[in-house]
Amino acid sequence: MNARLTPLVIYGAGGFAREVLQVALDMNSQTPRWDVRGFLVDPGYDVVEPVHGLPVMTTDTWTAPADGELVIGIGDTSARRAIADRMHARFGMRFATLVHPQAWVGRQVRIGEGSVICAGALITTDISIGRHVHVNLGCTIGHDAVLEDFVTLNPSVNVSGNVHLCEGVMAGTGVKLIPHIRVGAGTVLGAGAVAVADLPADVTAVGIPAKAIRQHDISWSIQSREGQV
Hints:
CATH superfamily of the largest domain: Hexapeptide repeat proteins
CATH architecture of the largest domain: 3 Solenoid
Number of helices: 3
Strand order of the largest sheet: 6-9-12-15-18-21-23-24
Order of helices and strands: EHEEEHEEEEEEEEEEEEEEEEEEEEH
Number of domains: 2
CATH class of the largest domain: Mainly Beta
Largest sheet: 8 strands, mixed
Number of strands: 24
Strand content: 25-35%
Helix content: 10-25%
Distance between the termini: 37 Å
CATH topology of the largest domain: UDP N-Acetylglucosamine Acyltransferase, domain 1
Structural class: alpha/beta
Shape: globular
């Protein structure tokens, strides 16, 4: 393997982890960069290996490559936060940032470490995307938007200009957010919801217009930091 390639391991072995693999492989088809070593899971995770010809390793026996990077292929926001904290503390891992070559990303866009931008995403200008953010297939993000750490956009989410999504927000498939609104940390927007006004932290909101229908029992930020996932 070309020595210039960076070893890459994908945490998780489910559906989104396989999509992350495809992003890395498609990046390599443009400019070879990643030496994908396989998938990483916790002991006891039920998976038949290999996955797409790559080994599935467990955290109790895995040795992190000194020059390697890790990317988390877990869609759930709070779980992703706990995994990132644990993997950094245990292995001191650097986190890879993956941007699919068929995503359109403007020049004035900042993307934090560990984030994954999938094919078909359109991200315009003066946008801040935090750490470990997932932007799925066909999402759009307009000017001056802010996506804080661990935000998840499922496929075909439309984020308008000047929208602020606080830490750990999860937007379900087909969610739309009009300009100049703020969604509080840990809030979940159900599939197809249309957010037309600010939403508080730690609620589930659904419908057109999106309305909070459930308050979460434990703050997402507290839950994540205590590892209760």
